[in-house]
Amino acid sequence: MLKMIDLPYPLTALEPYYSTKTLDLHYHILYKGYIDSTNKIEESLEKARNEGNFENIKCLEKNLSFFGSGAILHELFFANMGPVIPTEPSINLMEQMIKNFGSYEKFKKQFTEASKAIEASGWCLLVWVPKWKKLEILQCEKHQNLTLWGCKPLLVLDMWEHSYYLQYNTRRPAYIDAFWNIVNWNEVNKRFNNL
Ligand SMILES: [Fe+2]
Predict the structure, then answer these.
(1) All domains of the chain, ordered by start, with CATH?
(2) I need a labelling partner for 144 at 20 to 30 A (CA). Which of 30, 31, 41, 95 fits?
(3) Using CA atoms, how far apart are residues 126 and 97, in angstroms rounded to an integer?
(4) Cα(17) to centroid(ligand 1), Å
């Protein structure tokens, strides 16, 4: 059984860039929904195996990918944000960014533009691609589409409307600009170091 992770900070900690009300709904309702749904799907899969009845297998595998990816991405998202305490990419990560994007500013610009251009519901991700030994930025549709196999998410931004609409309405660029103030680079650096 999957269990919800604890938020690593109080609900008010990301103000004014990410409102308490938005974080409350996002964590307690939406994220909880992904955990609960993933657990239900796992139970159904176990039942199917035990009964040898796989008539719903296509639906179950599809839902496992959707809800499971949703659970994982939300945990990465909550952890790669934090209170407004200045943090920055480590020297190692910065060197890799310069190698793969040209500069930190170019990385930030590409990530920002990719986030703005996501169609409907999805995520923007900075990932490490082990096969290519390089960083890439991906636009993910829903929670599971448009990936590169084997990539390791380092920094993720939730671009579903539920993540910004209450506070920013349709002003996606303002939400993305605000996000840069609450990125916890210490967490991103840790993910990069642990590859
Ligand atoms: Fe979300």
Answers:
(1) 20-79 (1.10.287.990), 91-193 (3.55.40.20)
(2) 95
(3) 10
(4) 16
Query: Residue 18, SS3?
Result: coil
| One pLDDT digit (tens) per residue for the chain, 195 residues | 999 999 999 999 999 999 999 999 999 999 999 999 999 999 999 999 999 999 999 999 999 999 999 999 999 999 999 998 888 999 999 999 999 999 999 999 999 999 999 999 999 999 999 999 999 999 999 999 999 999 999 999 999 999 999 999 999 999 999 999 999 999 999 999 999
CA 23 to centroid of ligand 1, rounded, Å: 10
Write down the pTM of the prediction.
0.96
Q: Ligand 1: distance of its center to the CA of 50 in Å?
A: 33
Amino acid code (one letter) for 69: S
Nearest by Cα to 148 from 165, 126, 118: 126
What spacing in Å lies between the alpha carbon of 26 and ligand 1's midpoint?
Answer: 6
